[in-house]
Write a structure and sequence with these properties.
alpha/beta, Quinone Oxidoreductase, Chain A, domain 1, Rossmann fold, 7-stranded mixed beta sheet, 6-stranded parallel beta sheet, 9 helices, globular
Amino acid sequence: MNTLPHSAAAPEVREICIAQYGDRSTLAQRRIELPPPGAGEVRVRHSAIGVNFVDVYHRTGLYALPQLPAVLGVEAAGVIEAVGAGVETLRPGQRVVYAGPPAGAYSSARNLPAARAIALPDDIDADAAASLLLRGITAYMLLHYVRPLKAGDTLLVHAAAGGLGLVLVQWAKRLGARVIGTVGSAGKAALATQHGLDHAVLHREQDFVAAVQALTDGRGVDYAIDGIGGPTLARTMATVRPYGMVASVGQVAGDPGPLDLSLLGPARSIALSRPGVFRFMSEPALYREGALATLQQLREGLRANIGAVLPLAQAAEAHRRLESGESSGAILLRP
């Protein structure tokens, strides 16, 4: 077992936590003394913390956390400071990145199950990894497992200039697909186009269903990925060709509510999937497979678009930007 000097054995760390579910005002900063890592754990000193919409879902209670009070955040990069008993593949001083539960990334340092920590190669930037790992694993799940994307397929991505959207656009283009994306402004259209988007649909000015049908000569797309939810999900189904698929991966616009099976078929004959990346990552082999695939994509040129870097104490502002839809790309918190 590797240990640090006694003075560093129980450092004081800063955390952003919630004592109850609610709006951004529930986010509070506290200081605690962090105990040494337990058996099978590592202590990670964070250098960059990713902000994801699932953090908002955790804050509001839409996706309940195991217990309260709780520290938010499911993605970060940093340096291992100490390892617990039984940890043999990681060492102090090693750079790592991680994503997924247990939550707790909104902190200057934390103890983490060693199985979650992915060694970060020297040629990959920590900020890029912290902004992309969860989204990369999500893209890997969606494009290789939920509905494997093939060269020549046409994909529809909502919020194509968002954090996940930009990753999906780039990954799909690398697989040889044609990608149509909805965006909220001309500026976001330009950003998504710079990342490889073939066709941008400004959903505030255009009917995206009509636009997609026109772009596909009435055939529809092979696959649509919808992280918007609400009434958008039902309309997205009208953009997909017979025997195509819609993947619902979020509900920024609210719960779409009960769905009539007639929206799927038999007239349309389409499939609907509701995949969860946390479920995907609960399989250690799949988590590692998706993480390593994401790091390889970064090595091969996947661009990490970081729209903002804010101090950890401004987590509420990060949530405001995310919820308002004004952010493009990823948001990082700096401890």
